[in-house]
Each structure stands twice: as C-alpha cells, then as structure tokens.
Amino acid sequence: MELSSIADDQAKWAKAVDIAVRAEHLGFDSIWVYDHFHNVPKPAHEAVFECWTTIAAISQRTSRIRLGQMVGCNLYREPSMLAKITSTVDVISGGRLDWGIGAGWYENECRGYGYPFPLPKERIAMLRECVEIVKSMWSEKETTYHGKYYTLDRGNCDPKPVQKPRPPIWIGGGGEQLTLRVVARHADYANFGGTIDDFKRKREILAQHCKEVGRDFDEIGLTWSPEIFIRETEAEVQKAGSRSLWGHPLE
Which of 39, 56, 124, 205 has the maximal Cβ count within 10 Å? Predict the structure, then answer.
C-alpha cells in the first residue's frame, strides 16, 4: 500500500495501522512488513517504520490476521536477540507470528547504518547459523552454540513461542546452491522473486536439495513475489518491457 503521499509521520502511521485493521476486517489472511530502515531500492527522506516495532504494535490492534516479515534481514540483529523478539511477538499476538528471514542484500543500507556487509557466501552461512540458534532457543531450556560467526553460552529465551512446535519459518532468497540448501534443511516456506521461469527452475533445484538432505519437498510451501505492470493496453505493457523496480539482478 502506497503511503508516500502522506507527509505527516503520525498521520502516515495512523494510516498504516488502519490498513492493517481493514485488511483483517476484509478477510485477508496475513500482513507482511519489510525489514528496511529507509526506502528501497533508493533512499528517500520519508518515514519508514521499523519492522518489528510495527508488527508488535499492529498485533495489539488486530486479533486474527497473521503477522510476517517479507523478509527480515539477518545482518541487522543478533540471532539470540531475534529469538527473543520473535518469541515475544508470538506471545503478545496470541500465536500469530510468521518468521521471515533472509541473508540480507542491500549494501547501501548496511553501510548507512554501520552494519558489516560480508560476501554472499558468508552472509548465507550466517543465515544458516542464525536459524539453527533461533530454533534451539525457541525449544530448549538453554542453548550453547559455537559456530563460525555466532557463539552462545547457555543462552535462554523465555517466554517461549505460543505456537507448537514453533512459529512457521519463511526463508527468502534465490541463491540456488547455498540459500536453497538452507531452505531445504530449515524452512517451512520459501519465497521467490523473478519470472515464472525463474520460479520453476528454483523449485526444481530446491527439490533436489531436499532429496540430498533427506527432506520431504512437499513439506515446504512455496510463494512467489512477482512484479506486475498495469497498463491500459497490451501495447503499453510490451513497451514497459522487463523493467524492474529492483534492478536486474537483485543481488
């Protein structure tokens, strides 16, 4: 939903909450908030509300609709803190959290806010460790973890999530050899962008990863986030071509 035309920040927030409440009233199943600190793909000086604060607030104005992130950036928060945030949101929302997480892609934002921006292979390895830590902290009394990127010594996370066995995990990203292998091991859902042909190819690759790690491919729900150009005529659609708001490729 477009909010940039609203100049006043408090009015913009009120409208965002109103949209969420109306979505629930109209029967929508879920609301998704992106995890960015300013506009993407190009920064602009207008209000962008922080993802988890927004979700927590909306949870108190709604009662049924599910709440997710499409998707969270692992680089912005330590896994132990993410475990605490996610479990808290699941409790205060009455068990409505869908946890969306990805390796992170937006270098400009990382630099602007003082976060390191490792190479893709490292970011995906960090994502894998993050998901392993959060899953453990959601379920275990204490978590000790010694990875390459993260270390915990008897970390605990109370309260635990309401949902059993745990909140659904959505992993975003299209890296075919690394990200999709993390999806095969840990995700309940995966979200792909790109064209329908991209979706088909990634689906086939994910199925192969599932076979290699011993996971039933049908256990993983797949979603697609396409870009849609709406024009008055077919000629105008063809003229628009394959332009993307995000650029080609995204990473």
Answer: 124
